[in-house]
């Protein structure tokens, strides 16, 4: 039994050593990095919106869509008198499509122009760089793959290589991506062992490796107990009178 435990422990150690190092290293890196900075919250200005100007009932919007459609609250940003303002918008998800309606008029919200996107991105940016590039993406990169295309990407030439991803209809920054986020995402990939989508925490490779690591730990505890048990027994016998 002990020989089998030692054999199992040694081979599992050889197989798992690299991933165990990755787990500890990635966990340390992710614990050290402030999550607010990873998300870029310090680089984005969030506008405030009051819904007292909304005059259109959600039911009047949903009647134009299927019974499975869902409605959520959003906003559209504007620049007026060099100030960032917002108007209320209904966002309807229906059959994998998204529709936006003004909550004050009920009319569909038209997409913003590139000039407006530039203005809104600059108004929401709190960093020290300058706007470098603006592009409308029909296919989204890995770092925002969970969002829905199209999106505007606005890049700034700061030390963080900051990228804003803006909704083409509302002008809202949907995601902020920086070098810090990309480092965090890389170590998150190592931690959950999802090397393709970087999001599946229940993938079979992670489950199998975690189970093997548990066997490695249990076999090590068994070997440790076997090693020190005779020593305790000898120490008790040494205390007995002759």
Automatic annotation (TrEMBL):
<feature type="transmembrane region" description="Helical">
    <location>
        <begin position="205"/>
        <end position="225"/>
    </location>
</feature>
<keyword id="KW-0812">Transmembrane</keyword>
<keyword id="KW-1133">Transmembrane helix</keyword>
<protein>
    <submittedName>
        <fullName>PepSY domain-containing protein</fullName>
    </submittedName>
</protein>
<dbReference type="InterPro" id="IPR005625">
    <property type="entry name" value="PepSY-ass_TM"/>
</dbReference>
<keyword id="KW-0472">Membrane</keyword>
<dbReference type="Pfam" id="PF03929">
    <property type="entry name" value="PepSY_TM"/>
</dbReference>
<feature type="transmembrane region" description="Helical">
    <location>
        <begin position="12"/>
        <end position="35"/>
    </location>
</feature>
